[in-house]
Amino acid sequence: MDIGQVPDQIRFDLTASRNGLQIEFDRNDFHTMTETHFHREYELYYLFSGERNYFIHDRSFTVQPGDIVLIGSDIVHRTSDAGIPGYERMLLYYDPAFFDGFSAEHKQLLLSVFSHEYPILRLKLQQRLPLEALLLKLLGELTEEPPGYEIHAVHAATELLLFTARELLRQEPSVHYEPTPVQQKITAIVRHIHASYAEPLELDDLSSRFYISKSHLSRMFKEVTGFGFSEYINLTRVRQAQRLLKETGLSVTSVSEQCGFGNFSHFGKVFKQLSGVSPREYRLFNS
Predict the structure, then answer these.
(1) From the CB of residue 57, how many other CB atoms can be counted at a distance below 10 Å?
(2) What distances in angstroms separate CA 88 from CA 22, 180, 199, one per listed residue?
(3) Residues 77 and 4: beta-carbon distance below 8 Å
């Protein structure tokens, strides 16, 4: 199957089974992720065509055709337009349960792709050809749905991780990260938020601390990360609250206070908005 024959959108979901795999393909003009994005699944993103901006954890990257983007579990990320219309991309979400059937050695090998310093593997043409042949075969199976296509999808998703792991072992990081001065400034601000989420974080204070006007900080933060300033602070605090609710016996009130929410009712509202459930329900579901 040629990429031009692939439907504009494909969705495949095995999360209800023990395989824990989701696959998406999209062909779009312009698109920016609007939903808050962090999840327990490991994510592999491949760009067939176009150009995208990708914010991952605390850095911003420009993604080009032939790039594989690798995002670990619960890592905040967001894609946005890079100003060039039109792109084709493929996404695979691997639930942690996907790896349970492998030996410890093989599980470590496959998961290793998500723990590299650089989350982007840039492929040369001779590497892209066999990879895209694998992906196009997979997309053909998902489009036509012949008997056993689900089995093919699981094996292809595994082969994709194995291909990536071997390429990463074979070569040096293929994307040399050279942030612009603005990206460096925003990365410093993001890291400050990560370190100080339990304290009051106001736009006035950070603009003074980092010697940048409030309006410029707000505009550049959104441009580089894809998140609004307050939106990102709330997201960081809720992620920490989720961790404390899962890993400690602290009361919900104490969790709220330790994560920088001065108002308990505001904490409950923001938490439910981002998590889909209340803090108490989240603890119950994850205990």
Answers:
(1) 15
(2) 17, 27, 41
(3) no
Domain 181-285, CATH homologous superfamily name and number: Homeodomain-like (1.10.10.60)
Q: Sign of torsion, CA 100 106 110 112?
A: positive
Instruction: Tell me the average pLDDT across 149-157.
Output: 97
Is the pLDDT at 23 greater than 90? The verdict is yes
Element (H, E) at 254: helix 252-258
Residue 121: both structure tokens together: 């593997």
Which tens digit of pLDDT belongs to each residue from 208-239?
999 999 999 999 998 888 889 999 999 999 99
Report if pTM > 0.85: no
Q: Which of 110, 95, 89 is nearest to 21 (CA)?
A: 95
Q: Where does CATH 1.10.10.60 sit in the chain?
A: 181-285
Longest dimension (CA), the chain: 62
CATH class of the domain at 3-170: mainly beta
- What residues are paired with 42 via a beta bridge? 94
d(CA 73, CA 55): 15
* Collapsed DSSP state (helix, strand, coil) of residue 234: helix
In the chain, CATH 2.60.120.280 sits at 3-170
Q: Estimate to the nearest angstrom the gap between the alpha carbon of 210 and the chain centroid.
A: 27
